[in-house]
Amino acid sequence: MSLETIYALSSGAGPTGVAVIRVSGPEAQNITTSLCGKLPKDRVAQLSRLIDRSDNSILDEALVLFFKGPRSFTGEDVVEFHIHGGRAVISSLLNKLSTFPNCRMAERGEFSRRGFENGKLDLIEVEGLADLIAADTLGQKSQALSQLGGETSKLYEGWRSDLIYAIALVESALDFSDEADVPEDIAGEALPTVQTLYSKIETFLDDGARGEIVRDGFRVVIVGPPNAGKSRLLNALAKRDVAIVSDEAGTTRDVIEVRLDIDGLPVIVTDTAGIRETKSKVELEGIRRSFEQARQAELILFLIDGTNPQIEPQMVPDFDLDDDLLRGEIPVLKVWNKSDLAEVPIEISKKIDVIISAQEGAGLGKLTQLISQAVNDRVGQGEAVVITRERHRELLRKCSDELENFLEGDLSDTELRAEDLRQAAFSLGRLVGRVDVEDVLDKIFIEFCIGK
Ligand SMILES: Nc1nc2c(ncn2[C@@H]2O[C@H](COP(=O)(O)OP(=O)(O)OP(=O)(O)O)[C@@H](O)[C@H]2O)c(=O)[nH]1
Ligand SMILES: [Mg+2]
Asked: Looking at the domain that runs over 5-106, which CATH code has it been given?
């Protein structure tokens, strides 16, 4: 338990109808009694006049909720003051709180951190909470909620307990080490458990990064020759003027992104510099960045200028995206633009995926639909629990590698095999935050806002 009591505005900055100031720590009870005159019943909202005892002035009339630890968000005594959301009201209560002994403003994520340290949330749930607060789209929200709800933790914890069972079997074989044959047989009993776990984790890892895409966004990158209308298309999709549009070739040099919500999933559309031969150093750097973006894309929109059609990327001079990239992994949509000026010749119409006029808006509905389809092809329907972060993927990978060492290793060397399993369990323990996580904590809690 912490010695310091922390407080913060947990709702948005005022003015709002209601603001919530949360206090957690050993002084929470004294503070409540001092301000309200008496302590409200545990977990029962009470309307109360908050009085500053130093001069008997009224701070506000508030709804006060007291949570006796450990039955609270942080596990400590917590009080929530639901006050009027005016800036002066908020600051007067915050100022008053700073005058109590051992009481200070909370740091980012400090309430959640205390909740984690007191075992109210595990690390996976803390990360789910951070994702929930940051969620912009419905897809992100439901993914974060399932992680916060403990489903993900339950799965990983289940795997961890299977592993601990396997470790116990192998370790018991260590005790027989003088008797011939026996250790191998006993350690062998762990084989089916490890085998099953290994294939479960491998299948889980091979998920096309679905969870990460839902969390971080599906990247669509617009590439093509200068003046094809890439920036105009970005503006049309964003429904606002984000990028400069001009008939001067080589207008865009920086990478410009907008975030869209397509059917509840976050889609990041990126406009890039037009690809062409150029001597301008700045433009060359822009072109280099275009390729760099394209390589990270989940979908490439190859934009064709209808008035000067180059319908294959290879027809664009200097378009040196690796051949395997365009043929293989990343899907490419060929988008014919400027349909208001130029129709698609019948002989090439089969090679075009969608015809638009970024300027007039024609075909944009169809294009959005194709993007949405690409997102769904990638994210699709599947298991409810998914990997949402690189941290999780890395630890699961490590765990799986250790299981593989076990499966391929010499079973008679029980000492080494037990160590493989211990390492695997260690990775799962780090995943849910049971062991050795100091190094990741600061990184995780910094994602939070103050008051959470
Ligand atoms: N008529 C017509 N003109 C368009 C359309 N889309 C873009 N343009 C025009 O084409 C010119 C180039 O548009 P941009 O959006 O700047 O082209 P870009 O591909 O971003 O060009 P760079 O940034 O130089 O690579 C501008 O004059 C636009 O107004 C369209 O659908 N129809
Ligand atoms: Mg541009």
From this structure: 3.30.1360.120
